[in-house]
Amino acid sequence: MKICALCGDMIQEQDETVEHVPPKLFYPKGLRPTIREPFWTVPSHRACNEKYRMDEEYFYYFLMPLVINENSEMGKVLLDDLRERRKNPQTASMIKWLLSEMKSETPSGIILPPSIRRFSVNQVRVQNVALKIAQCIYFKEHGIFLPKLPCKHCELVERIEDLQPLYRLILEHTQPVSIAPDVFNYRYICVDGMHHFGFMFWAGYMFCLAFDDPEGRKDLIWMRPQ
Ligand SMILES: [Zn+2]
What we know:
Bound molecules: zinc ion
Number of strands: 8
Strand content: 15-25%
Number of domains: 1
Distance between the termini: 31 Å
Order of helices and strands: EEHHHHHHEHEEEEE
Helix content: 25-40%
Mean pLDDT: 90
């Protein structure tokens, strides 16, 4: 019987599905032909998989402005994708809600020019998705469930210059792993029992995460074989 990568429990056959890493939603239709399929997947319960769906949409749409800022070419691809997805009524209502969340003035009451909108991201929702992706990558690498509890660090980094020194070293000295580098790639190493992940989304922003070793191994060192 398989283990669920998201909760660590056994999966009964009738409850089994696959979780895509990263979520399938993250692949804009315009880029699908460039993807070296098969998609990465890990086993999960249907219920665990379903639980993240809304947060994944939130992540994709709410952080899109960061991609548009940093990588205008990819920003255009994502915006085209968004226009296409608007034809789906459920997605359209999500986007409508997103636009209503964007404010035209700053907290101190300054009115922003029409091209600038302020938005505050719900950190819990975006971190929830980043943590889940780390669980999936860990499962993909080791076939073992990674609980969220030992997560010691989860940070959204908009610019490479803002990376903490350790993550900058990882970025410079390890190869990214990906099936579609324009969409998502990851770097992963373990040093002194601390598992470090660097995720790059749409070549626009990064998430850096660190987890204590779930089995408490303090001297564990691991690098993905090249
Ligand atoms: Zn589960």
